[in-house]
Amino acid sequence: MKLSEKKRLQIIHAAEHLFAEQGAQQTSMDLVAQTAEVSKRTVYNHFDSKEALLYAVIENMLSQVTQDQELVYTNDKPMRDQLIDIAKSEADMLTSAPFLRIARVAFLELLQNPDMAAHLNNTKVGCMRYFETFIDHAITAKQLEVDDITFAAKQFVFQLKSFIFYPRLYGFELDAHITQDKVVEETVDMFLARYQVKSER
């Protein structure tokens, strides 16, 4: 690895730590340089603004999130079982420490930066990398009946997020009666109640 790339990673790792601890708004580029043990000039040689650095930090953190392989629709397995697999995988990612760390780093900035919010909204992670294609294939196989695939895919994921991701992000007390398995199963059953072809129920 070239020296310039090493310094770039030093800066990113220092900024990640600082942004997670005190927020991007409260972190100066001087402090980033100090923590990374490089000059302020070096920081600006790699990142011309704090926003550019924040983008790089988030992209680097996303690359470290464990994402299961893309699941492909098959006729050889019951629809419910396939959706359970997808929901479990998504739930595991949403509750993982690396993903929650990204959310905490980005959260306050997203409220003030519409461009970054739009960028992250368009960055597909977890099952959103393939779920629309999965739904489309299930429609072709006459297992699902969906008019708006994008909406249905988001509906599935947002149901999971509402119960297992946002409470953790905001630091709310988790309801002991609402287990992750329960959320997964109820999300799948609600999705099937709405979209599964009636003759196949």
What does this structure look like?
Helix content is 68%, strand content 0%. The chain is an all-alpha fold. It folds into 2 domains: 60 residues, Homeodomain-like (Arc Repressor Mutant, subunit A), CATH 1.10.10.60; 136 residues, Tetracycline Repressor, domain 2. 25% of the residues are buried. This is HTH tetR-type domain-containing protein. Keywords: DNA-binding, Transcription, Transcription regulation. Pfam families: TetR_C_7, TetR_N. One of its GO terms (molecular function) is DNA-binding transcription factor activity.
Assign the structural class, choosing from mainly alpha, mainly beta, alpha/beta, alpha+beta, or little secondary structure: mainly alpha
Q: Order of helices and strands, N to C?
A: HHHHHHHHHH
CATH class of the largest domain: Mainly Alpha
Outline type: elongated
Number of strands: 0
State the CATH superfamily name of the largest domain.
Tetracycline Repressor, domain 2
Task: Give the end-to-end Cα distance, rounded to a whole number of Å.
Answer: 56 Å
CATH architecture title of the largest domain: Orthogonal Bundle
Number of helices: 10
Radius of gyration: 20 Å
What assembly state would you assign to the polypeptide chains in this entry?
single chain
* Fraction of helical residues: 55-70%
What number of domains?
Answer: 2
The major sheet is characterized as: none
| CATH fold assignment of the largest domain | Tetracycline Repressor, domain 2
